[in-house]
Amino acid sequence: MLAKAVVRIGNGAAEMEGMLELPPQRDRSALGIVLFAHGSGSSRLSPRNNYVARVLREAGIGTLLLDLLTPDEEGSVAARFDIALLAARLRTAADWLRAQDAMLALPLGLFGASTGAAAALRLAADPAVPVAAVVSRGGRPDLAGAEALRSLEAPTLLIVGGEDDGVIDLNRMAFEQLGCPKELVIVPGAGHLFEEPGTLEEVARLASDWFAGHFARNLP
After folding, report:
1. Nearest 5°: CA angle at 36, between 27 and 6?
2. pLDDT one-digit tens code per residue, 21-31
3. Between residues 184 and 27, which one has the greater pLDDT?
4. How far apart are CA 135 and CA 139, in angstroms?
5. What values do phi and psi take at 85, rounded to 5?
6. Which of 15, 31, 174, 178 has the highest count of CB atoms within 10 angstroms of its CB?
7. What is the mean pLDDT of residues 120-147?
8. DSSP assignments along 15-30, one per residue
9. How far apart are the C-alpha atoms of 118 and 60, rounded to whole Å?
10. Angle at CA 69, nearest 5°, toward 64 and 74?
């Protein structure tokens, strides 16, 4: 498989387009692969998620950023908050990754933002999908549902901006329900989008350390 490739993943009547990138090989293979679940109103072109993805690749981790919704669906608030729909499409992408020879032995991680975090957590709670670690950035883990949060086993990191008051409370409530290895990090001075100087860099550092550490435990 190419180190960088545009991929199209069929999901019934919808087709998801994304960018798959593997880290430079250097003297070792990738530590794992992270599937990104974008938030409401965002896409695979999100500059914030692309920055985080670049930092992950520099740490030896592959990334797949893709659009879970079609352009028509993106205009629908109902579709953007349809967690069951987003999780189902995320599962299709995860299944596609596991069907690729180059990805077969790699641990799978999920990185979700906003409503995409809820979809990632719901997918990770499915015992049929082997997920090694999950990271949520400014996410809505509460929307994953109490059953998914309680049954989740994959180590989960929740990252929230210190100025994102309402979302902090929702993350704290969801954090209490998680039964998996977990951590909640509140980044001082950061708003919902982590646009303040140094805050997105901190998100990328936290995510890179989380995935690398847990992927190392899942490599054969």
Report:
1. 70
2. 988 765 457 89
3. 184
4. 9
5. -65, -45
6. 174
7. 96
8. EEEEEEEPPP-TTS--
9. 26
10. 130
The CATH number of the domain holding residue 101 is 3.40.50.1820
Interval 11-24 mean pLDDT:
83
Query: Which amino acid belongs to residue 34?
Result: V
The count of domains in the chain is 1
How many other C-beta atoms can be found within 10 angstroms of the C-beta atom of residue 77?
10
Amino acid at 213: G
Task: Return the closest-CA partner of residue 32 out of 132, 107, 100, 134.
Answer: 107
Strands 108-113 and 32-37: parallel
Tell me the average pLDDT across 149-167. Answer: 96
Which structural domain, as residue segments, surrounds residue 64?
4-216
Closest CA to 157 of 106, 112, 215, 94: 112
Describe the chain by its helix, strand, coil percentages, rounded to 5: 40, 25, 35
* Tokens 């902090």 belong to residue: 168
Round the average pLDDT of the chain to a whole number and report it. 89
